[in-house]
Amino acid sequence: MITALPFDSNIFNYPVGKIVVEDKWDEQDFLKTVKDFQLVYIFSSKALDISSPSIQHVDTKVTFQKSLESIEKVNGIESYKSDEFSERLEELAYLSGTFSRFKTDTRLKNGEFQKLYKQWIIKAIESKQVLVGINMEGMITYSLEKEHAKIGLIAVSESHQGLGVGKKLVRAAEYICQLEGAQEMQIPTQESNIPACKLYESLGYHVAEKVYIYHWYKD
């Protein structure tokens, strides 16, 4: 059964839905139920046998996980204290989505990627859950739900990549979240984002979940 997604629908200005394939995948049954949507996300723990050109594999999401124990404070990273929307943060938000399915799906031609990532960074600013380098050379967003923490967006400016800024951002987020009661951290990313996967593995994370994501899009 397809679930409507009001948040995405409002941002994209057309009906968006999602479906989670939990057992048997029946493509023909699915195609009979999509007439009221323009875009549907399909999530599956296994790769699906697809024949319709309207359904494309757009991402294999891997979620890294780690227990937080005795995390030390990191110098050079601070909370973004302003309530003002920053063009610099907007640039970094777009950079964080280099491998995003909303960017790599070439059928999404109405600025969906920019609209979505702009809203994500705005919400993180409003929640005061953004950390930045002192010179805005990088940023990371996070969220907390009781003892569970999660990284949202992370990006390092092109001029500072390879200098260890990404590690500092993750460690700073771990430190803040542990102070606020988190016992574990999760970081979702794309399997195709090899540099990010290697970074998280180097910090002691392991893959806790893999999800295959497809987009059905009405031509």
TrEMBL record:
Domain named N-acetyltransferase is located at: 138-219
Report the Gene3D superfamilies cross-referenced here. 3.40.630.30
Q: Which organism is it from?
A: Algoriphagus namhaensis
Which enzyme class?
transferase
One Pfam family linked to the record: Acetyltransf_1
The protein, known as: GNAT family N-acetyltransferase
The EC code for this enzyme is: 2.3.1.-
Q: Which UniProt keywords apply?
A: Acyltransferase, Transferase
Question: Where does the chain cross the membrane?
Answer: none
Q: Which GO terms describe its molecular function?
A: acyltransferase activity
